[in-house]
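Practice problem. Given the sequence and the SMILES for uridine-5'-diphosphate-glucuronic acid, write out the predicted structure.
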Amino acid sequence: MAAANSSNGDSVKSPKRPPPPSPLRFSKFYQSNMRILITGGAGFIGSHLVDRLMENEKNEVIVADNYFTGSKDNLKKWMGHPRFELIRHDVTEPLIIEVDQIYHLACPASPVFYKYNPVKTIKTNVIGTLNMLGLAKRVGARILLTSTSEVYGDPLEHPQTETYWGNVNPIGVRSCYDEGKRVAETLMFDYHRQHGIEIRVARIFNTYGPRMNIDDGRVVSNFLAQALRGEPLTVQSPGTQTRSFCYVSDLVDGLIRLMGGSDTGPINIGNPGEFTMLELAETVKELINPDLEIKIVDNTPDDPRQRKPDITKSKELLHWEPKVKLRDGLTLMEEDFRLRLGVVKNN
Ligand SMILES: NC(=O)c1ccc[n+]([C@@H]2O[C@H](COP(=O)([O-])OP(=O)(O)OC[C@H]3O[C@@H](n4cnc5c(N)ncnc54)[C@H](O)[C@@H]3O)[C@@H](O)[C@H]2O)c1
Ligand SMILES: O=C(O)[C@H]1O[C@H](OP(=O)(O)OP(=O)(O)OC[C@H]2O[C@@H](n3ccc(=O)[nH]c3=O)[C@H](O)[C@@H]2O)[C@H](O)[C@@H](O)[C@@H]1O
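Answer key:
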């Protein structure tokens, strides 16, 4: 087999040719140009992705979700639409369906929820990804995995480039998620090399926006809900740990570009603006209520101390970079949280 250069410059064997589409795909009822499966499509990012893909009249969108952290409510505007279908399905079980593209998002993302049943989180990442790759292989579909900046663990390189192999605890309480996603990435590349599957791997950095669960447990939704309820903002110690927050519309744009482009990834998709958790709390206070208290509380084990994406690759290969600044994104999210919490803005 001929040698070729991978995107990070390593020499790898040329992958096999991708499998042809399943003959079942072209039934006599075939209408759309593209039939797209989104696993985890009832969740926060997934439902925004559905909205964007449904804007294209040539797309037919199918969501498969077990509603562990997602909700039908996020998709209510599409219920009954002729180009939309919602299936209650757990990705740890095989799915027989004819599609052209798969956005594989299914996995609890908030640390509170992925630690709730860690064995199930691993099964979702490993067996779920195997099932979706098996489906991609059978029908010749292109598949995109939403991996995470957590594959870099508590990073010793800053900012993180895609060539960094990470610093991950394999036996810690976060491992079900970060090691689970690392195995999911491995499976993606093995199916690509061994079976010629067309893969795309996105490494997403902390994303926020409307429709996050109010009591999701992640920092932006926690601070906003606390601020609107007039409660103290719980900064986990020491508060100097950093994150880089990407608004959900920017993220979705990046995912669609990655799926449509020719690079397999892995590719970082995130906003390089970096903030400490204390700075984030101060920003939320300033925007919503300057009288709020900030309370330092205990942290959880293995919390990464710093995180910031190097997005050189997504700029060059996807011509993508985030547009929404943190303050603007927080204001958009505040509107959604006010509506859902029933808290009116006093001017
Ligand atoms: N939001 C972020 O900051 C972020 C960052 C990095 C990676 N990601 C990844 O993006 C994806 C979506 O994240 P999100 O923030 O929208 O989270 P979310 O929890 O809102 O959405 C996850 C969805 O997957 C569904 N799900 C979970 N387990 C399932 C299973 N076994 N079978 C079928 N459906 C299942 C949930 O019900 C939910 O609808 C996840 O894969 C996550 O790891 C998110
Ligand atoms: O973007 C990523 O790659 C990953 O980031 C997040 O994991 P994490 O960064 O730990 O997200 P949060 O739970 O929002 O925590 C961010 C920081 O805020 C702090 N925090 C959290 C909650 C809170 O109330 N207060 C607080 O200070 C945490 O200690 C942590 O340092 C997501 O939850 C994962 O799904 C995702 O894969």
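Check your answer against the key. The chain is about 35% helix and 20% strand.
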